[in-house]
Fold this sequence. Notes:
Blueprint: H1 5-22, H2 24-35, H3 40-44, H4 56-59, H5 75-86, H6 95-123, H7 134-163, H8 171-182, H9 191-196, H10 199-215, H11 224-253, H12 267-283, H13 287-323
Amino acid sequence: MSLSPIEKAASGALASAIANTLVYPLDLSKTLIQTQVKPKSEAMSRSGSKSVSMTSEDSVFQQTEDHGELKYKHTIDVLKKIYAKKGVLGWYHGLFSSIIGTAAQNFSYFYWYTIVKRVYAKINRHIPNHKPSTFMELFLGALAAAISQMFTMPIGVITTQQQTDKHHKNLYQLAKEVYAKDGITGFWRGLRVSLVLCINPSITYGSYERLKQIIYANKTHLAPLESFSLGVIAKSLATVSTQPLIVSKAMLQKKEHGDEDVKFDGFTHALEHLWETEKFRGLYKGIAPQLVKGVFVQGLLFMFKDQLDVLFVFLLSLLKKKKL
Length: 324
């Protein structure tokens, strides 16, 4: 029995929610690392800048320290500083919106990916034993991701806003602020780079499917460890390929706290600023938590999803038997 697009999407959404909850502190730390920006004047001259008076509450989400130094050096540094101010609960700041966001994004992606693949299969049904090429797998994944982004982009914007908000405002307050500042288009801030980033899930799922066909050609369902291993490899390839775009997207969607924040016209402007102020290191900042979080989430997602697919098929078959 094959699952419907809605059932496939539900399986993917549930798996992503479980996986993201397990590694959320890494998600928060990589967002804080990626959204801290060094002004050009400070990058060109290390003579220092005027200190900004902040409360203990504000300092957790401060971008830079005196003399233009970035506040967060690495993942452990982020977690230590948040723990010092907020305790363990600080590591889960913005968890609710993040879970809603990842579940919605994965539900939408898996739904459209299933639809796109079925349409492709119908178009090529006259070709015996036809399987899409690697390029076509990537294209189908990118198309599904692009369609999905149009529906789920506002959730991603609000999630990033909450993770970088020092005042702990709720989702409704943040949504009002976005609308007041940029109107309805503010909820699609960073859309261009998000559409370019559609190649990320495309590379991930395309690589996963191709590796699955090559390594486990005779298997219908993979064991948890097999799914996890393929997911880790596939996500690593996608993350390394697209990290500069991931950083620029986070910078565009971060919550601005005052006039001292650097504002960007688009993702190319953000990339240019990163190169001028931090060079190659800036383009790949946050790569460690991004990789660790990404590969574990993707590995766990594939692992849980394959098992959830089996569970869904089993439950559906039981329901049909009861009806009979």
